[in-house]
Amino acid sequence: MYKSLLRPLFFLFQPEKAHKVTMGLLRFFMVIPFVDRLCLAFSLGRKSALRFDKKGIRFPNRIGLAAGFDKDGKYFRELKNLGFGSIEVGTVTPRPQPGNPAPRLFRLPADEALINRMGFNNEGAESLRARLEKRPDSLVIGGNIGKNKDTPNESAVDDYLTCFRELKDVVDYFAINVSSPNTPGLRALQEKEPLQELIRAVREEARHQEADQPILLKIAPDLTQEQLDDIIEIVNNTGLDGVIATNTTIARNGLKTSSDTIEQIGAGGLSGKPLKHRATEVIAYLREHLGDEALIIGAGGIASAADAMEKINAGADIVQVYTGFIYEGPALIRAVNRMMLKESL
Ligand SMILES: Cc1cc2nc3c(=O)[nH]c(=O)nc-3n(C[C@H](O)[C@H](O)[C@H](O)COP(=O)(O)O)c2cc1C
């Protein structure tokens, strides 16, 4: 029903408007008696055989919603009822910020992809924390943290620490985001020295605050082999708990969408199908070099149960979706859960 009826309707709207309309509708339907329970049952998301424990987190199932979809933690209840086992809120910054001017989100239907340059539009860490105080326990919530656009990289650590302190009592894991292409200079924090300093500072803060949630690093798919090796070394040296691979890409190769259209859209991160192969490659490399202990969350171009299995087989413990969810709808969650049940994962 989503693909044949709802998606064509939603796609009549500008992408960002469509997001608001869909979330409004979802909220509306979820207050109808029993709809929440019916949706949850349909999604298979709370079947006990799907549970997965790692690093002290009890994931109800292996499919999560990637960061950026529910940046401000407004819809986690409704999204939980669609069957997600985990939701990564954020990226949140210490202070609220509007993000880049619109239009900043574009569909590439021929490629089943999106390009976005949202630029961390969010209502700030304090407001996110307030919402998460009413969070359910039956859902894993990750806090994806970043820095404000006007904070220079030399003071970036302070922004991450502010977000960490604000969220420490309301999230189940942290994701340090140094990989979004839409905050100028952010990805420079993926370089060895600044990254080491940032992770050490966050780990130290965690010790100081007696916060024992796993801390993960979210990385870009555009890292060179050398950078990826540096990341592996840093994860091992700093005792980081794992990695989320991957964020959106700045690459534009192999697209079906015309180059004129791509040029008109301009800068931004590409997500969805064109990212699938590279993301899987990064996951496989990370698993090979980080060993079994690390928590690896895989994202990038998952649009079917088979895509999710590909990421799991490459070494992901948990998978996340964003673009595939926009194109495929809630049936994707059920399909993934069903496949995992079948595979007895
Ligand atoms: C519109 C949009 C906004 C996003 N915002 C964030 C964000 O704020 N922080 C982040 O770490 N990733 C963000 N992402 C990246 C996703 O979390 C995910 O890593 C990426 O899109 C790859 O997964 P996908 O191919 O399933 O979309 C965003 C993606 C999209 C499409």
Give a description of the structure.
The chain has 345 residues and is of the alpha/beta class. The chain has one domain (2-342): Aldolase class I (TIM Barrel), CATH 3.20.20.70. It is 41% helix and 17% strand. The protein contains 13 helices and 13 strands. It has helices at 2-10, 15-30, 35-43, 76-81, 125-132, 156-167, 192-209, 225-238, 259-265, 276-290, 305-314, 323-328, 331-342, and strands at 52-54, 57-59, 63-65, 86-92, 105-108, 113-116, 140-145, 173-177, 215-219, 242-245, 269-272, 295-299, 318-321. It has an eight-stranded parallel barrel, surrounded by four helices. Strands 5-6-11 form a three-stranded antiparallel beta sheet. Strand 1 (52-54) and strand 2 form a beta hairpin. Helix 8 crosses helix 10 (276-290) and helix 10 (276-290) packs parallel to helix 11. The protein is globular, with a radius of gyration of 19 Å. The chain binds flavin mononucleotide (FMN).
